[in-house]
C-alpha cells in the first residue's frame, strides 16, 4: 500500500496533557504515504490536540513523530512544512485569491514562472479560476474554504492536516465539498489527516478511521471494519447502532452469543470479554427486517413513526417495554403490531460494563 512518492508519517505513543488532564494518550499509528486518515470522535475527545501536535503548534508530552526516517517532533511548524486547513479558513483578507494561494510558494522562493503555473493549476483544481482577483470577503464560505484548501496543497506538502474544514458550511455545501476533497485526494494522493466529529463524513472520505474517546484510541480500521465490526459499544453507538439492548447472557460459544430478556432471545456475534452475565446487544435500525420470516424474531408494537423519504423510522416497543428503532419501507401506523427479525451477524453483543480502561480516572 505504501506509495514511495509520498511521505509516511509515524506516530509513536504520542500524548499531550494540559495540567492534570490528558487530552491525548499514547497514540501510535503509521500513516502510509498517500493515505487519507480520519480522526473521528465527539467534541473534546482530543482530535484538535492530536492535529496540533502533528503540525508542531503544540509540543508533545510523550512519544515521538517521524516523517519517513526523520524525527520531526522537535521541529517548529514551518520546518515541518505541512499544509493546514482550519474550520475558520484563516485567509489573508487583504490579499486576492491568487495571492493567498501563492503565499506559501513565495515564502519558499519558488521561481516566478513555476509559481504562476502552480497557482493556475491548483485554482483550476479547486474551481476558483473565475475568482482569482477577488478578496476573501467577496467570496462565499464554500469558496473561501476552497481557497484555504488550495493554499494548503499548492506547494505539495508531505502531509495535509485538516481540522473540521466543513463544519462552518451549510449541509448542502458540506456534501459538495466532501466530494471535492475526496476528488482532490484521488488526483494528488497527498498524505492527509482529516479531523471530524461527523461519522458519515469520516466513513465516506477516509481510507482508514481512528476513533477517539477521551484522548484514547478506541479503534483503527477501514470504513468497512469500523462500520461493520465496531470494537466496543462506544464505537458502535457512534457508528449508528442506535439500539443498545441491555440483556442477560444465556450462552457464549466461541464468537456466538445468545442473549435474553425484554421478551426476546437473540443470537448474535460476541465481542470483547463476555464473561459477565449482562450484555448489550447493539443493532442498527437499518439492519432490522420487518414482516419477513428470519432469525431473531420478535413481535413489537409501533409507537412513533417518522417520515424519512422512501422509508420510515419507527420507534416500537419490545414485549418487555424497551424501545426498538428500525427503518422500513412498509407503511406502519402507531399502534400496529408487527414481527421483526435481525440477521444474526447484525446483532453485536458487547459486555454491558464499560471496559475498565475507559472509566479509569484521567491521570
Ligand atoms: N490549550 C488548552 N488548554 C487546556 N485544555 C485544553 C487546551 N486545548 C484543549 N484542551 C482540552 O483538551 C481536551 C481535548 O480538546 P480538543 O483536542 O480541542 O478536542 P476536539 O478537537 O476533539 O474537540 C478538551 O477537554 C479540552 O478542553
Ligand atoms: Mg477540535
Can you offer a commentary on this structure?
The chain has 363 residues and is an alpha+beta fold. Helices cover 25% and strands 35% of the residues. The protein has helices at 47-55, 77-80, 97-107, 112-125, 141-153, 171-188, 199-205, 223-228, 233-238, 356-359; strands spanning 9-18, 21-31, 36-40, 62-67, 70-71, 83-86, 159-163, 191-196, 208-213, 216-221, 243-253, 256-261, 264-270, 278-283, 289-290, 298-308, 311-317, 323-328, 337-341, 348-351. Helix 3 (97-107) packs across helix 4 and helix 3 (97-107) packs parallel to helix 5. Mean pLDDT is 92; it is low at 356-363. The structure holds adenosine-5'-diphosphate (ADP) and magnesium ion (MG). The site of adenosine-5'-diphosphate has 10 residues, from helix 1.
Question: What's the SSE blueprint?
Answer:
Blueprint: E1 9-18, E2 21-31, E3 36-40, H1 47-55, E4 62-67, E5 70-71, H2 77-80, E6 83-86, H3 97-107, H4 112-125, H5 141-153, E7 159-163, H6 171-188, E8 191-196, H7 199-205, E9 208-213, E10 216-221, H8 223-228, H9 233-238, E11 243-253, E12 256-261, E13 264-270, E14 278-283, E15 289-290, E16 298-308, E17 311-317, E18 323-328, E19 337-341, E20 348-351, H10 356-359
Parallel strand pairs: 3-8, 3-9, 6-7, 7-8, 13-20
Antiparallel strand pairs: 1-2, 1-4, 4-5, 9-10, 11-12, 11-14, 12-13, 14-20, 15-19, 16-17, 16-19, 17-18
Helix pairs in contact: 3-4, 3-5
Oligomer: single chain
CATH architecture of the largest domain: 3-Layer(aba) Sandwich
The overall strand count is: 20
Computed over alpha carbons, the radius of gyration is 24 Å
Order of helices and strands: EEEHEEHEHHHEHEHEEHHEEEEEEEEEEH
Mean pLDDT across all residues, rounded?
A: 92
CATH top level label of the largest domain: Alpha Beta
| CATH homologous superfamily identity of the largest domain | P-loop containing nucleotide triphosphate hydrolases
Spatial order of strands in the largest sheet: 6-7-8-3-9-10
* CATH fold category name of the largest domain: Rossmann fold
Largest sheet: 6 strands, mixed
In what range is the share of β-strand residues?
A: 25-35%
Number of domains in the coordinates?
2
